[in-house]
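If you are new to this repository, start here. Below is one unmodified record pulled from the training split, so you can see the exact layout before writing a loader.
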Amino acid sequence: MSVQANLLQRLQHARIRHGSSIALIWLPAVLVLAALAWRLAGVGPALALLIVGAAGVAAFAWRSTRRLNRQWLVRQLDARRKDLDDSTALLFADTATLKPLQQLQRTRLRERLQTRPAPDLREPWPAPRIAIAWLLVAVAITALLLWPGSATRSAGLAPVAQQGPVMPGVPRLIAQRLRITPPAYTGLPARNEAVLDAKAPQGSRLQWTLRYAPQPESVALVFLDGERVALERDGDDWTTTHRLDASVLYRVIATGAPTQPAPPLHRLDAIVDTPPRIKVLAPAQNLTLATRGQRRWPLQFEVEDDYGVASTAQLRITLAVGEGESMVFSSQAVSLRGRGGARGRRFDTTLDLTSLGFVESSDVIAQLMVTDNRSPAPQVVRSPGVILRWPPDLGRESTGLEGMVKKVLPAYFRSQRQIIIDAEALLKEKPKLDADTFISRSDSIGVDQRLLRLRYGQFLGEEAEGPKPLPTNDAEAPSAAPAAEEVHAVDDGHDHAEDEFAAPARFGSMDGVVAEFGHMHDIAEAATLLDPETRATLKQALDQMWQSELHLRQGDPKQALPFAYRALELIKQVQQAERIYLAKVGSQLPPIDMSRRLTGKREGLARRALPPVPPADQEDAPAVLWRALGTETGSAMDDLDAPMQSLQRWLRENQSRVSDPLAISTAIDALQRDPSCEPCRQSLRAQLWSAMARPPAAVQRRSQADAGGQRYLETLGRESDQ
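And here is the target side for that same chain:
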């Protein structure tokens, strides 16, 4: 054997020793895990874990031996043999590439290795570590073998209190446990219940563990709807699993004796996952008018859910451009990432109106769509749509169905701008006018401001200024046709021409007092027509008009202009607040089939007749049983069997009409088990009262009038005859 082959063989032995050492150290841990899986899950999972673990240890050992290569061999020989002159690498080099001096050195190295063999490169066995590892394995496996079986583990079950006498040979439940494992998406931990009644999220996995004494032949869960689930015996315990999809009633039936009492009913309530709840934080209103120069629109949504919502949501943006039939719609979706906890997230964004194409006569509609974490079918919820609308042109009346505008305020509310124009024109002409003319024209504009202020005051319940003369017997009679300027001598914003042409009222009469000192407004409820916020804005506008009038009447229009401008701004706010915007959609009527006109054919037409009213003596199942339970106490159950069966069928078909159908079923079962139980009878009757249909409303006949009422009616009759 050549020197190179001998060295490579020693390298292979070193690799085998290193890999074996690693395997002997880590393989005991795999054996312990496999033994634990055997005790918990059985032979199949334990064998699978053993195979996978052994393969993993082998792969780890092989990967560790890869560092033992030729470079490692050269380093080891140079370190252990000083006579090799740190030239061991020449033994594995290509002969054609070596120089004469290197070839000479290579020959010397071969002679030295033949005279004195290379050292053993295998590392020593890690005996202490291997011994400790296998000793721990032995202790762990021994403990697992001595681990108590299912019979001993059942000591963790909750004891069951005996509710009846112990019958010899009849299996009785002595210990029980109900383990509830909610779905993973809820994030709720698994829990154990000491009773067989429970409330759990819909889709939970339920595991029953029961123990009987003496042991029955079989145990099964019998649900009220007829489903039957058999339990399997594991030592002294009986176990089974079931998925909770809906609220049910069930009983545990154990066979093993010819006669035994019926076990009680148990109740399982499935908690339904509610859909997410979305709240719009910004904007504060569903319909918002864009301000002048607005380029961005901030949106904020808050989403809450009982088990958590997805971290991302979709914001659907719809842009409506145009009016009437020429309106064009475009939609796009934007993904938003929420912040906050899983059960409560906030989704914020700011829309760039310029990039969206928000122009005149357009609307932007935003709607958030979120999903919860329910698996396998998440629930999708859409938020209410929020609208950003281009402000309408206040100087134009809208017609048609493309967004009808109803004006509440009169058209003359726009005359404040004319007062400002007149005041500014007067200031420009001031250098050309003398002082008296300037003051006179300023006072004239102030009078116009006063008249406008009085007209606005009508909508706040204010009356006209200037008292009327008191009526006296020596007063002159009014002329039959007063002049127009006399009719409106006092301008309070109302047209009293018709009242003053009317005949004078008699002094002292109620009609005369009303006609002389008061008048009826065209809109009686004008003072209360506006909402409180709009009334406050209009009151501020009146205050500004008063200051503007004050300075104009004093001949100082320059000081009046700021108040006039402020009054105009407040009036615009009132105009925008007092408009009612209708949806920009028209009625979608079905097309008319012209071929059927005047033919008399009635095929396919829906009946217009109202559904027949059930007779008054036809009662539903709850009412029939409720009436039967109201008979004498202790009546035979034979009289109640038919109503009870009818009620159970009625419950299966009308569960939505009853708030708690399982409670009624439980009360029926309790009465069937003990027909002489008077509290059970009263409990069932109380449950049926809420399930009974309410009688339809009927017109009650008015009771006959007593003596006083009869005299009152006779008096009214005599007055009507007169």
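Two things worth knowing about this chain: The two ends are 150 Å apart (CA to CA). The longest strand covers residues 172-181.
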